[in-house]
Write a structure and sequence with these properties.
The protein has 350 residues and is mainly α. It has 2 domains: 9-282, Orthogonal Bundle (Fic-like fold), CATH 1.10.3290.10; 287-347, Winged helix-like DNA-binding domain superfamily/Winged helix DNA-binding domain (Arc Repressor Mutant, subunit A, Orthogonal Bundle). Helices cover 59% and strands 5% of the residues.
Length: 350
């Protein structure tokens, strides 16, 4: 059986770059309580936006999507699924909600992982929901000539239940010793989980749900307010590149975890920076709402959509954003680019 040496391995990953990332994340986490106590209304809006973005992004990575309108209705439980894509989106919503509400009481065990997978497919007719893979699987890509190229071969189906049990126990034991940073251990767990690839379908989404669970249990709550899944989707080329780089030699226990660990720590740090910017922008800035909207348009390069402004200013209503944009257009400070759903705005150079 594949061994998971979490009593030694994390210590080999403490390169200057990784240590710097860990320190930066810890610094932001030190301010977390101040943000969480500062403005409940802003946090509630941020959480709602992040939830919808997480449901959308994690499924979209796997080619599962619906319209923006349907997504919001499903995320807010104001609609029932109409097709397979929407069934899977609704399942992700339910597991995400469970993690958000009860993470303190959910230990990462093999039975919990099976429960999450079952609930992920609760609205579908999948016979494999809540079951380990029953056939061996591969991670492959289609080359330019149309041929399938195997990038990685996960553990065989027969070895999966024992490997997951071993992974969960090893992770739990490593946490209990308090020798290594929890963030390092979380990154290792998630990578090994992906390499085991324990299900015939849903492995990517399960890995992202498990990432949130482990982060929340370690009191890194940023994923509630800034979508970590969206940040992964926005950098998915790097995500897949680091997965591949760190997977070479995994079955033999000779792989290098550092590329994936650096990537995931970078995602967590990016989430904290965005969280900090959004909350501090509301709590510290003395600018009016209109001034804050104008500031986004003046500082952000390229086209800025209304959706982006609403995401960055969760306390500002859509009506206020539209009114401000109309005023700035009239004053000649910005110009409209595109039409319909692609409409955006760019600053006018002085």
């Amino acid at each position: 059986m594949r061994e998971f040496n979490y009593d030694v391995l994390p210590g080999t990953l403490l390169s200057p770059g990784i240590v710097k990332l860990l320190a930066a994340i810890r610094e932001y986490k030190g301010r977390q309580e101040l943000y969480l106590e500062a403005n409940p209304d802003v946090l509630s809006t941020l959480s709602e936006v992040a939830k919808i973005q997480s449901i959308d992004a994690s499924n979209r990575i796997e080619g599962i999507h619906t319209t923006d309108k349907r997504l919001e209705e499903l995320a807010r439980e104001k609609a029932t699924p109409r097709n397979r894509n929407e069934e899977e989106i609704a399942g992700y919503r339910d597991v995400l909600a469970l993690i958000h509400e009860s993470y303190d009481h959910i230990r990462p065990t093999s039975s919990i992982i099976l429960q999450f997978h079952r609930d992920l497919y609760r609205y579908t007719s999948s016979a494999l929901a809540g079951s380990w893979k029953i056939t061996d699987n591969i991670i492959a890509e289609i080359a330019a000539d149309g041929q399938q190229v195997v990038r990685f071969k996960p553990l065989p189906a027969m070895a999966t239940p024992g490997a997951i049990e071993k992974l969960c126990n090893t992770f739990d034991e490593a946490l209990s010793t308090e020798v290594f940073d929890q963030l390092l251990l979380i990154c290792l767990f998630i990578f090994d989980f992906i390499c085991i690839h324990p299900f015939n379908d849903g492995n990517g989404r399960m890995s992202r749900l498990m990432t949130l669970l482990l982060l929340y249990r370690a009191d890194f709550l940023v994923g509630k307010y800034v979508s970590i899944e969206k940040l992964i989707e926005q950098s998915k080329e790097s995500y897949y590149e680091t997965l591949y780089a760190s997977s070479v030699g995994w079955n033999e226990g000779t792989n290098n975890y550092e590329p994936f660990v650096r990537y995931m720590l970078g995602i967590v740090l990016a989430a904290y920076r965005e969280f900090s910017n959004r909350v501090e922008g509301v709590l510290i800035s003395r600018k009016t709402k209109a001034e804050r909207i104008e500031n986004i348009l003046q500082q952000q390069p390229g086209k800025v959509t209304k959706k982006v402004i609403l995401e960055q200013c969760p306390d500002i209503s859509e009506t206020t954003v539209e009114r401000t944009l109309a005023t700035l257009l009239k004053e000649g400070k910005i110009q409209k680019v595109g039409a319909g759903r692609t409409t955006g705005y760019t600053r006018v150079e002085a």
